[in-house]
């Protein structure tokens, strides 16, 4: 299948083309504002499907709205008509098409042009009135508040929120691309004349800003966002894509002594925390028990033994562990336990606890195994 994508270097175009290639759609005609206009005619002759994503939304002159959003659409459709090519045409419109402003009017004019073309040719039209689209590769400080907030906060720059109560309807780029590929494969989500992206997130500007600031702070408190929240998950992925190249990494606090080290890695409010424990050869750590706190140990390097004793018993149980075998050992409540490095090198253990450490209520009681 030969696919024509206009606006190929734009935000949606780049993401769409990347995923088309992932799905082995390799015969793609990429057309953008710097493409030789003469190539468009040949592309329209050969195309089996058209994604018309090109458009103008931040022109120097208002007249450019109509030239870019209506004029180029006219050129595209005339070229298809010239070659009697009635392949499906998807057009990227906007919810602004329902409003009276130069941008919205130009988008509405492009829609009407396509609907007229359909009546004349019998071709299939797929019109998407997108709300605000967010995700990786969106240009900041241009026409997306989310992109601007993510970029500025990731770069320690201030943001401006004129009205925190403004409600935004947002769609995520991966959801958009998934729907566009559904349309390509004749499984679009269509309601009357228009197609829709099924998942729309409604949220205020202040909530967006607060979330993004919490993402930045998560590096300091070693937390991760609530990935069960679909919007937070998508926004966090978006935020990370705007990190400066020299800020992909961040330091953790290592608590070091003669026995080795203990480093908290990740904390969550509802899934506990993950830490990295390093024990020197011959060292034993632990010798304590918990009422409610429970843990999982996974030795990933070195070898050792984990010992257990029920606090009202003298019987000791041993689990020999090694980085050569990925084996998780549960640490039940009511058992005092320790872990000893039996090897000649450092033993590295990943430790998960069902709750984050609270110094006011540690639920940890010393008792030798």
TrEMBL record:
Pfam families in UniProt: Epimerase (PF01370), Polysacc_synt_C (PF14667)
InterPro entries: CapF_C (IPR029303), Epimerase_deHydtase (IPR001509), Lipid_A_modif_metabolic_enz (IPR050177), NAD(P)-bd_dom_sf (IPR036291), RmlC-like_jellyroll (IPR014710), RmlC_Cupin_sf (IPR011051)
Protein origin, superkingdom: Bacteria
Occurrences of domain NAD-dependent epimerase/dehydratase (ranges): 3-189
Domain (Capsular polysaccharide assembling protein CapF C-terminal) ranges: 256-365
Protein name as catalogued: Capsular polysaccharide biosynthesis protein CapF
Organism: Alkaliphilus pronyensis
């Amino acid at each position: 299948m030969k696919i024509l994508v206009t606006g190929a270097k734009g935000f949606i175009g780049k993401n769409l083309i990347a995923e088309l290639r992932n799905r082995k759609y390799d015969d793609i005609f990429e057309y953008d504002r710097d493409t030789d206009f003469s190539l468009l005619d040949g592309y329209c002759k050969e195309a089996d499907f058209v994604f018309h994503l090109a458009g103008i939304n931040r022109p120097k002159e208002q007249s450019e709205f109509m030239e870019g959003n209506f004029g180029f659409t006219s050129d595209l459709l005339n070229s298809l008509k010239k070659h009697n090519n009635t392949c499906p045409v998807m057009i990227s419109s906007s919810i602004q098409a329902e409003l009276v402003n130069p941008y919205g009017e130009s988008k509405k004019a492009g829609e009407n042009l396509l609907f007229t073309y359909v009546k004349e040719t019998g071709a299939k039209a797929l019109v998407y009135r997108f709300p605000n689209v967010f995700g990786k590769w969106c240009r900041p400080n241009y026409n997306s508040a989310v992109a601007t907030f993510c970029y500025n906060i990731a770069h320690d720059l201030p943001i401006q929120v004129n009205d925190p109560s403004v409600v935004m309807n947002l769609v995520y780029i991966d959801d958009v691309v998934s729907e566009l590929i559904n349309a390509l494969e004749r499984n679009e989500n269509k309601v009357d004349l228009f197609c829709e992206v099924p998942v729309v997130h409604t949220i205020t500007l202040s909530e967006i800003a607060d979330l993004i600031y919490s993402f930045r702070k998560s590096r300091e408190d070693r937390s991760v966002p609530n990935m069960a929240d679909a919007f937070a998950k998508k926004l966090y992925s978006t935020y990370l894509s705007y990190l400066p190249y020299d800020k992909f990494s961040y330091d953790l606090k290592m608590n070091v002594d003669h026995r080795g080290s203990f480093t908290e890695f990740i904390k969550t409010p509802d899934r506990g925390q993950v830490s990295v424990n390093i024990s020197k050869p011959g060292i034993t750590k632990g010798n304590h028990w918990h009422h409610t706190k429970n843990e999982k140990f996974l030795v990933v390097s070195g070898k050792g033994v984990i010992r257990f004793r029920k606090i009202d018993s003298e019987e000791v149980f041993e689990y020999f562990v090694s980085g050569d075998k990925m084996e998780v050992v549960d640490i039940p409540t009511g058992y005092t336990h320790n872990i000893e490095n039996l090897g000649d090198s450092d033993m590295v253990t990943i430790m998960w606890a069902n709750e984050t450490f609270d110094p006011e209520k540690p639920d940890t009681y010393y008792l030798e195994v």
